[in-house]
User: What shape does this take?
Amino acid sequence: MIRNQEQFDAVIKADQRIESDDWMPDDYRKTLIRQIAQHAHSEIIGMQPEGAWITRAPSLRRKSILTAKVQDEAGHGLYLYGATETLGPDRAELLDLLHTKKQKYSSIFNYPSPTWADVGAIGWLVDGAAIMNQVPLCRCSYGPYGRAMVRICKEESFHQRQGFQIMLSLAEGTNEQKAMAQEALNRWWWPSIMMFGPPDTESVHNARNMAWGIKRYTNDELRQTFIDASVPQAEVLGLTVPDPDLNWNDERGHYDFGDPDWDEFTRMVRGEGEMPAERIRTRLEAHNEGAWVREAAEAYATKQQRDAA
Ligand code: BYC
Assistant: This one.
């Protein structure tokens, strides 16, 4: 068991794991609570843009796949709230921070999903970006977070494939379907690029979180990896990435790309505008409607304890 700073530093240096009952610096605990809670909030808010399409999925098969995917996101939220709780705060407290906008969720979920193709684009690009970001998090120095990420990443891979498959069906369909896929790509490309966070020069937490083994790659490194992987996938789909500056750079061995609209990113992170307000409203409705489930679970747990005593 780790008891002080010196032992903590040695474990980080040896690239081993910190567990919940170990001593840890306050700032390490704080940054983990911030990141894991925001990650959990993103998972449950992220149910909304796709959840909106469950009743309108184009076939029973698509409906059952989408239902399973959206349920998976709820499960990811549960693992991650559980991991955050190992650091101190309880779930009701964390949800309150989301509902009162004191903690963030990912900027990506402040965009609308007006067509079925958006469901495809979200699976392909948003889950694709999530995988890029989250696979390295499986090696996070904080054990409960790293272990939660292993299962999440397996499920995200299925999500990404189902999204790509929807895009492929549309891209191989009628002219209208292909146009719908292209428009969804146009809507989700830049938000997905920005999902990796601000440029390294602006990132507040990059350096320290890398030193602590929480992050393994910087925001810009992951962004580049995502672009390099996604452009050939867009080519397979026969769709055009909406970036006139996109160009393969032989010397760098990477794609060069244009500059995202960072002002828009800031607005989305701050939750400005109608869409973010709707996301929180919908979340609160679901929370309030679920009050009876929490009460029933509590009554059951109390009865179990009484019976066991
Ligand atoms: N959106 O210093 P930086 C999913 C904030 S959901 C909003 O680079 P850090 C899915 C950042 O929090 C997956 N805020 O921070 C679900 C910080 O502000 P605070 C979501 C952002 O932590 C359903 C400030 O900007 N994934 O997969 O080193 C359906 C400066 O940033 C964003 C995760 O949560 C953003 N995009 O790096 C489909 C992964 N980016 O907190 C899919 C876990 C930055 O100081 N999180 N900010 O007020 C991480 O890996 C890191 O926290 C980030 C940011 C890479 C996001």
Remarks:
- The mean pLDDT is 97.
- The beta strands are 247-249, 254-256.
